[in-house]
Specification:
This protein has helices at about 5-10, 30-45, 50, 55-65, 80-90, 105-115, 135-140, 165-170, 220-225, 260-280, 280-300, 325-335, 360-370, and strands at about 75, 95-100, 120-125, 125, 130, 145-155, 175-180, 195-200, 215, 315-320, 340-345, 350. The protein is of the alpha/beta class. The radius of gyration is 21 Å and the shape is globular. The mean pLDDT is about 95.
Length: about 375
């Protein structure tokens, strides 16, 4: 290992059996120290301009890691809020979205529909064979003349299936492609600029903590999306208190609603700096190697793997099928053994593997699942 990777790995302190990064990624010591330092500065009365200096650090890192222009990225407190801003800013028409999406990537469109702004066309998320992934072919077959946008998760939260974003981009032509990137950004090494709106919360795989995230917009997205939910910090001359609306700022900053938390932007900046220190490719490679080892042992033990087996089709999520009705009990057994995972329904458990996951974590999980060591 390189010194940079050693430092990166040593900065985290989650329990050995923590396999739940798809729900929440415990922040590093560097992130915790950054928040503490900024909180101490705030309590000492440091001017807000000084506290918010980390905003630019975070935004510059987002631009580098996404490939979007610096002026095309803005901070957001969550994926849900970022998606709501996109939904309410869309041109009139229909949005195509799978019914199997995580709720944040459904409620945004439903709420905009309820406000009379758009219509929603649902791509069935379940077929006769179970989960129906969002593929370029299925998307192309479901497009209608009034479709203005297609919304999809880069990585499906239930199965870990990686969407073919480039293929979907080609299939939808000039329509807007909205990508919920929270389950993939930072651990999937790919071209994110195929999206017209990339929305990412930082509390999972980026390990930046709650209240962190960003939105990145393509030139097409900037041209078509209106800052309907933008606020006073997203306009020209925000401190000119003249009682009249001002022109929106250029770029993605027009979607700013108010002054954000400097603690959140500082945490995101610190987390992204650590990611850049080792590179996304290194993190991806470690996750891929560990996930492959886990899957191989599961299959050897004849345990059903419900997530994609091929590395190019998955990220850090490994879903294991459990006997019908037994998943909650097995989940309690995992918890008692110090293994943290997510139970989905009564027949599956989702494990999330990060770069810091060790063989000991896999051993602990496999012992409970009944696989030989």
């Amino acid at each position: 290992m390189t010194a940079e990777l050693d430092d990166y790995l040593a900065s985290f302190a989650e329990p050995t059996g923590y396999l739940n990064f798809g729900s929440y990624g415990p922040p590093s010591r560097a992130v915790v120290e950054t928040i503490g330092r900024l909180t101490a500065e705030a309590s000492a009365g440091v001017p807000s301009s000084g506290l918010h200096a980390r905003d630019e650090h975070a935004l510059a890192a987002v631009a580098r890691l996404t490939g979007f222009d610096r002026g095309a990225v803005a901070l957001t407190p969550s994926t849900s809020f970022g998606l709501l801003q996109i939904a309410f800013g869309l041109p009139r028409g229909a949005v195509l979205v799978s019914s199997a999406e995580f709720p944040s990537n459904l409620y945004a469109w439903w709420r905009a529909r309820d406000a009379g702004l758009i219509t929603v066309r649902t791509l069935p998320g379940v077929s006769g064979d179970g989960f129906a992934p969002v593929t370029p072919e299925r998307v192309a077959a479901s497009l209608t003349p009034d479709t203005v946008a297609v919304a999809v998760s880069a990585v499906d939260f239930r199965t870990g299936f990686r969407a073919d974003l480039a293929g979907i981009r080609a299939a939808i032509g000039d329509r807007l492609l909205v990508v919920d990137g929270i389950q993939g950004f930072g651990v999937v090494d790919q071209d994110w600029t195929v999206a017209d709106a990339l929305v990412v919360g930082g509390q999972k795989w980026l390990r930046a903590g709650w209240g962190t995230g960003f939105v990145a917009l393509s030139p097409r997205g900037l041209a078509r999306l209106r800052p309907v939910l933008g606020g006073w910090t997203g306009v020209e001359g925000p401190s000119r208190y003249d009682g009249v609306p001002h022109e929106p700022l250029p770029g993605a900053q027009r979607f700013s609603t108010t002054n954000g938390s400097p603690f959140a932007s500082g945490a995101l900046a610190a987390a992204l700096a650590q990611l850049e220190s080792v590179g996304v490719a290194t993190v991806r490679r470690r996750i891929e190697e560990t996930a492959t080892a886990f899957i191989d042992r599961l299959l050897t033990a004849d345990l059903p793997v419900l997530s994609p087996v091929a590395p190019h089709e998955r990220a850090g999520l490994v879903v294991v099928g459990i006997a019908h009705g037994a998943a909650p009990t097995v989940h309690k057994q995992l918890d008692a053994a110090g293994v943290t995972a997510t139970v989905h329904g009564d027949d599956r458990i989702r494990f999330s593997i990060h770069a810091t996951t060790t063989p000991a974590a896999l051993d602990a999980a496999l012992t409970v699942l009944g696989a030989p060591s």
